[in-house]
Amino acid sequence: MQPAPEHVPLVRTTRGGFAECVHLGSIAVVDASGRLVAGAGDAHGLNFTRSALKPLQALAFVADGGMAHFGFDSQMLALMCASHGGEAVHVQVVRRMLARIGAKESDLHCGCHPPSYYTHTSTCPPPGARFSPLHHNCSGKHTGFLAYCRMHGQPLARYLDLDSPLQQRVRAIVERFAGSRDLPMGMDGCSAPNYAMPLSALAHTFSRLAVGETPELAALAYAMKRHPDLVSGTRRGDLMLMRTGGGDWVSKVGADGVQAIGVRSRGIGIAIRIADGNRRAMHVATVAVLQQLGLIDAAAGTPLAPLDERVIRNYRGIAVGTVEPAFSLPRLP
User: Fold this and answer.
1) What is the end-to-end Cα distance of the chain in Å, rounded?
2) Residues 110, 133: contact at Cβ < 8 Å?
3) Which residue ranges make up each domain of the chain?
4) Is 70 exceeded by the pLDDT of residue 1?
5) Mean pLDDT across 201-214
6) Number of Cβ atoms within 10 Å of the Cβ of 211
7) What pTM, to 2 d.p., does this model score?
8) What letters, b where the CB count within 10 A reaches 16 and e where it falls short, cover 47-85?
9) What is the CATH number of domain 8-325?
């Protein structure tokens, strides 16, 4: 069994001036060559990538000419990289993708869950609302998988099988970007194979994505940055990050405390992991990383402001504690 990463405290919460919770994790910041330029904890430790892997899972389709083959547009490519909120616009684009490749909703093997839009907006689904696999946050990725199989004449029913040509191709791509063939594999929440890679390798992947190292990576980054609302959704972190970056940053969250960001102008990649998966801690850590590296002065006045919630309030709105970064990174030159 692979050793667990040696995480360190990244975020602490207080209540009444007394430390209450400590969230362990690690940070890796790399340059365009993959050299670690800043970090905290175990910057090279293995961590599951979860949905931060989606651009690589879409890469084979793009590299094989799938966009031109089916006449896909940048909205469709953004949905292939998305952990979307299941909003009407997301479902509409996925429907168009399925129609374009001649597949059905029942061909999607991602499962079904209520749209995350309701969680992130603190609202409830309307009475009697019914949802389908189209509303699953990974439905765009899965439709991209189906499109790859359709283009290559592979059976749609087996698109998630580990030994299928598609998943073998995806693994080869991930191994190339990770620089290793010894990658732990597990099943993601949407039933797709997922891989753990060194945190520094995930950061390097996003630096390569941000600078558009190849035409295929450039196409993926363009789609994600042009349509951050499709990559995520209302009140979602990736939308806030990419809007704050103004076309310079490409960002992708992963479940259970993963955040990856590529910064084109600096040629750097950033990967953050909060070990217990706490979303609040991940958001505060992400904003703190951007501040400490000198990429933003403060979240206030930017689309990132809602992520930087450093005051804990109770249900009456009374301030009862704080959320504080517990790490220090050098400012980039």
Assistant:
1) 39
2) yes
3) 8-325
4) no
5) 98
6) 21
7) 0.96
8) bbbbbbbbbbbbbbbbeeebbebbebebbbbbbbbbbbb
9) 3.40.710
